[in-house]
Give the backbone structure.
Amino acid sequence: LVGMEEKQSHNTERQHKAEGLLQELRLLRDKVNELEDEKSQYERKLKATKAEISNLQHLLLTKKTEIEHLQAQLLSRAPVSMDSA
Amino acid sequence: LVGMEEKQSHNTERQHKAEGLLQELRLLRDKVNELEDEKSQYERKLKATKAEISNLQHLLLTKKTEIEHLQAQLLSRAPVSMDSA
């Protein structure tokens, strides 16, 4: 009887270990799914911010061109210098 | 004897299942670590690109101010109009 109880106890312990492993597997699979979702969100965000950088750089370039244009206009309208007076 | 062989075969099968589970656990833990590394890389990249956007926006603001300044200068140096001639 004692031998049978020991065997029963051994089986129960093994059962608990297996359940523990399966539980850990479920948790890890959930974690992997969660992290993969986060990863694709980051990819989208990063793509969006890179597009924003590209837009800003383009806008900056147009502003630089505008500044050059205005400076050229200013030079052409500069008050007559003392030398030519 | 057949009973013992069956039991042995049953144990071997159970052993294989347990090894399979442990193997899957190891793979999932590696995957979780790998994904968490990627996540922190994305966080760094995203932080860097946001800082770049902030810099570009600041630069754009200085260019706009410069343009306004140049336009004001141009107005003040506008050729004398026909009315006042």
Chain B touches chain A at residues 18, 21-22, 24-25, 28-29, 31-32, 35-36, 38-39, 42-43, 45-46, 49-50, 52-53, 56-57, 59-60, 63-64, 66-67, 70-71, 73-74, 77-79 (CB under 8 Å). The radius of gyration of chain B is 37 Å.
